[in-house]
Write a structure and sequence with these properties.
Layout: H1 10-17, H2 21-29, E1 37-38, E2 44-45, H3 48-62, H4 67-78, H5 84-124
Length: 136
């Protein structure tokens, strides 16, 4: 047990990381966060290292990494420095997938921009319609 004043409460951790208390508890149950120390009243208390780790998890999730992959990464991390190579490989594979997704999204955004330009032109140039372009 730790002192009641040591570490961050769930609410404080939630504010520090931008996750709900529910998500923090879920991450713990899912094995993404080590079991969190508790005070004498059984309340979770997060340490400074937990903040940085959870922020990294948030970043992975926001890049679209599936929980399953995040769990694998967390397990490797928990195993220590002997797993640096497989962690690196996992991150590099995710980075490659992310770059591919960005390229697809960029192409989609350009197609939307082109369509918007077409519509704006049709508003200022009577007689211009979508009929010339069967894609939309």
């Amino acid at each position: 047990m730790i002192s009641d004043s040591d570490g961050l409460t769930v609410a404080q951790m939630s504010c520090a990381c931008g996750l709900s208390a529910y998500t923090l508890r879920y991450y713990e149950r899912a094995g993404l966060i080590r079991p969190v120390a508790r005070n004498s009243g059984g309340q979770r208390r997060y340490g400074a290292a937990d903040i940085e780790w959870v922020r990294f998890l948030v970043r992975l999730r926001e890049t679209g990494m599936p929980i399953r992959q995040m769990r694998h990464y967390a397990a490797l991390r928990e195993s220590g420095n002997s797993t640096i190579e497989p962690r690196l490989q996992l991150l590099e594979e995710h980075q490659t997938a992310l770059k591919e997704q960005i390229a697809r999204l960029t192409a989609h955004e350009q197609a939307l921009a082109d369509k918007i330009t077409t519509y704006r032109s049709s508003l200022t140039e009577p007689g211009t319609t979508d009929k010339e372009n069967p894609d939309g």
